[in-house]
Amino acid sequence: MAEIAHAPITLTAFDWVPPFARGQVRDLRVRWALEEVGQDYAVRYHARGQQKQADHLALQPFGQLPTYEEGDLVLFESGAIVWHVAERFPGLLPDDPGGRARALAWLLAALNTVEPPIMDYAITTMFEAAEPWSKQRRPLVEARIRLRLEAAAGRLGDGEWFAGPSFTAGDLMMVAVLRLLDGTALLGSFPTLAAYVARGTARPAFTRALAAHMAGFTGEPPAGRKSPPKTPTQQGE
Ligand SMILES: N[C@@H](CCC(=O)N[C@@H](CS)C(=O)NCC(=O)O)C(=O)O
Question: Which residue has the least CA distance to atom 1 on ligand 1?
Fold first, then answer.
């Protein structure tokens, strides 16, 4: 239930990212899942750039984080890792096969249907904000997100969680993805979804995971690093 030096499970995480990205790097999703199921874990921290070196590429072919090691098992992709944790340890899935399949559907919906337009928004408003096409693209990108949020809000209705009466790995991933929009007018215009995100992030396991994630940023920025791009909030969202 905590990040400790020696544990049967080891994750990788960055020791430094710009302030706007802290609280959003994807090791947080894995930490959250492990906190929900009560498993300790160790973290191997990487400086920026180290994720492209051969020893890490052997674990993660795309040179990204997080990774997960447990005995002989090496996993990459935060969705696959969270799903593995949910299947391996009780606490994130119901017992019935139908309920488990529904949880998987929401986990995949979060990553495959909801997150892509939200990442596009992050690219447009932050990483490529200075590019001449970004301003023009923004209304289109926002409209695509709104379509997804409308559909999700319609399905959630006045329910508490997406895949059934209890919190599941599917909700963990939906909350993790939707909170990328925390503080924006986009999420704010869907009060039931904003409340859903608040419900998910109020869970003690999330609070512990976020605290450990934030405490891990003890490294230095890479040499020659320019000042970070502005957050959506700073840009008037
Ligand atoms: N689909 C991957 C995405 C992983 C990803 O984008 N990781 C980012 C941190 S959140 C990263 O490693 N960025 C550095 C890079 O791509 O070089 C997952 O969910 O694990």
Answer: 77
Q: Tens of pLDDT along 115-173?
A: 999 999 999 998 899 999 999 999 999 999 999 999 999 999 999 999 999 999 999 99
Strand-pairing partners, residue 11, are: 43, 68
Which atom of ligand 1 has the smallest separation from the CA of 111?
Answer: 19
pTM (2 decimals)? 0.93
Rounded Cα gap, residues 207 and 186, in angstroms: 24
- Domains of the chain by start residue, with CATH: 9-91+207-215 (3.40.30.10), 97-202 (1.20.1050.10)
Please give the distance, rounded to the nearest whole angstrom, from the Cα atom of residue 184 to the centre of ligand 1.
23
pLDDT beyond 80 at 110 = yes
CA–CA dist 170, 228 (Å, integer): 32
Model pLDDT for residues 32-79, shown as the tens digit of each residue:
999 999 999 999 999 999 999 999 999 999 999 999 999 999 999 999
Single-letter amino acid, residue 5: A
Contact 221, 115 (CB under 8 A): no
183 phi/psi in degrees, rounded to 5:
85, 0
Q: What phi and psi, each to the nearest 5 degrees, are found at residue 42? A: -105, 160
Q: Report d(CA 92, CA 209) in Å as an integer.
A: 15
